[in-house]
Each structure stands twice: as C-alpha cells, then as structure tokens.
Amino acid sequence: MLLNILSNFCDYWWLAWCIPFFMGLSLGYFIWAKFAKRVRLLEDEIIKLKLQLKNK
Questions:
Q1: How much is the mean pLDDT over the chain?
Q2: Is residue 38 part of a domain?
Q3: Count: domains in the chain
Q4: Rounded to the nearest 5°, which phi and psi values hold at 8?
Q5: Residue 16 lies in a domain
C-alpha cells in the first residue's frame, strides 16, 4: 500500500489535504484544552480569594 501511494501520488491527492487538516484540528483542540484548564484553575483561585476577603 505504501509503495503504491508513493508511485501514484496523484491518485491520493486528498491525503495532501486531509492529513494537515486533521493535524491542525487536533493541535487546536489540545491548545484549547490547555488554556481552558488554566482558565478553570484561575477562576477557582479568584473564588477562593474573594471568599478570603469576604471573611475578613
């Protein structure tokens, strides 16, 4: 299969479009998940600090 793809690359033109698309999609998801987790942690910290200020 691999040798067939290398010898007839024009028959598999859709791979040149699909592979970067899915790689970019997965990279975007991982970056978004990282920052979403950070936002959740910071929001929790803000809530804790507000409770500390309210109790004083």
A1: 88
A2: yes
A3: 1
A4: -120, 60
A5: no
CA angle 25, 28, 20 (to 5 degrees): 35
DSSP letter at 8?
Answer: T
pLDDT tens digits, 10-31: 777 777 788 899 999 999 999 9
C-alpha angle 33/48/39, rounded to 5°?
A: 15
**Could you give the 3-state DSSP secondary structure of residue 38?**
helix
Whose tokens are 């007839």? That residue is: 8
How many Å apart are CA 35 and CA 48, to the nearest integer? 20
d(Cα 36, Cα 42) in Å, to the nearest integer? Answer: 10
